[in-house]
Design a protein that fits this description.
With 116 residues, the protein is α+β, with helices and mostly antiparallel strands. The protein is built from 2 helices and 5 strands. It has a 5-stranded antiparallel β-sheet with strand order 1-2-3-5-4, covered by helices on one side.
């Protein structure tokens, strides 16, 4: 997918509105429009990386920044102490529907396993 047509790239560029929770030069965090839990944030890099298959040395700092922010966002959303889940779907069989790497932070209820 071309980054000009990518849904999340359009959100990053401000072409599509999102309820932003946090933003810096590397990462955008916003609320999922179809939440699967009381807390459901999406953490995305501000560069186009299609999936986990494309993580490499050139973009690793964006992924590292996402993982640095996860506990901070969990604290902000009051799920740090009780627990939360981080999900990344990769590829069609993995459930990836937007081909821009993203990580779901889910919490605020007891999450079951397997997820689906």
């Amino acid at each position: 997918m071309d980054k000009l047509d990518c849904l999340f790239c359009k959100i990053i560029r401000g072409e599509i509105p999102a309820k932003k929770e946090f933003e810096n030069d590397k990462v955008l965090v916003f609320h999922d429009i179809t939440p699967q839990a009381p807390v459901h944030l999406l953490l995305i890099p501000k560069i186009h990386i299609s999936s986990t298959n494309e993580i490499d040395a050139s973009n690793m700092d964006y992924i590292a920044e996402i993982f640095r922010l996860i506990p901070e966002m969990a604290k902000r959303m009051n799920v740090f102490e009780k627990g939360y889940r981080i999900v990344n779907n990769n590829g069609h069989s993995g459930g990836q529907t937007v081909h821009h790497i993203h990580f779901h932070l889910l919490g605020g209820r007891n999450l079951t396993w397997p997820p689906g």
